[in-house]
Amino acid sequence: MATTERIRTGAGDGHGPERRTGALRRDLTPVEASLIEALRGRILGGRVDGALEDGADVELLADRMVAALPTVKHEADALIGPFYDTPTLAAWRGVTRQALSKATARRDLIGLKIGDGSLVFPSFQFGVTGSPLPNLRQVLALVDPDRIDPWGSALWLNTPADEFGGTTAAEALRDGREDQVLAAARRAAHAWAADA
Q1: Of 20, 143, 161, 176, which is the most buried if we count CB atoms within 10 A?
Q2: pLDDT per residue over 122-159, tens digit each?
């Protein structure tokens, strides 16, 4: 389950993620405009009825919404990302950095080390409320029992496969198909062991 060192280290220069600066701009990118339209559609569609009252701190709500966006830029975005860094993920989930470290050590979260030594967290492992994938610990224990290749594990979880109906193992876990994913993880582990 080998992955390239280039993916592990960052944007090809070994210095890790590239971050977007907070410079003031006049125009939105097409994706940003689409995000605002999607939010507008949910509000007009009644998805937030009763959630906002007069006097609500909309600045605080906007900050929380932005905190939910994965902001780390990495060359592996197309395969595994986008990614959260530790401070952003801690803020979004309302936990400490230590709690994230413990969850990563328990394998309840996938934390991937990049070139500068920091951890990034692939966003595919979180649901819309920030809850992590169910049964992730069991899957990781099968596909990478010796904790040798967390990047490879993340890639396996986020690659569409016919055995999951064209979706990913992560999506299958989120859909409650843990038995199917665990069986696939066992098969993958046996195939990799045979190739070693």
Answers
A1: 143
A2: 999 998 778 899 999 999 999 999 998 999 999 999 99
134-139 contacts at long range (C-beta below 8 A, 24 or more positions apart): 134/173, 134/174, 134/176, 134/178, 135/173, 135/178, 135/181, 135/182, 136/107, 136/108, 136/109, 136/110, 136/173, 137/106, 137/107, 137/108, 138/178, 138/182, 139/169, 139/173, 139/181, 139/182, 139/185
Please check whether residue 123 is in contact with residue 111, taking contact to mean a CB–CB distance below 8 angstroms.
no
Q: Which of 164, 157, 162 is nearest to 132 (CA)?
A: 157
d(CA 16, CA 127): 25
Burial class of 124 by CB neighbour count within 10 A (0 to 12, 13 to 18, 19+):
buried
195 contact partners, CB below 8 Å, separation of at least 6: none
Give pTM, 2 decimals: 0.69
Tokens 């230590």 -> residue: 98
So what's the pLDDT on residue 11? Answer: 40
- The CA dihedral of 14, 17, 18, 22, to the nearest 10 degrees, is -150
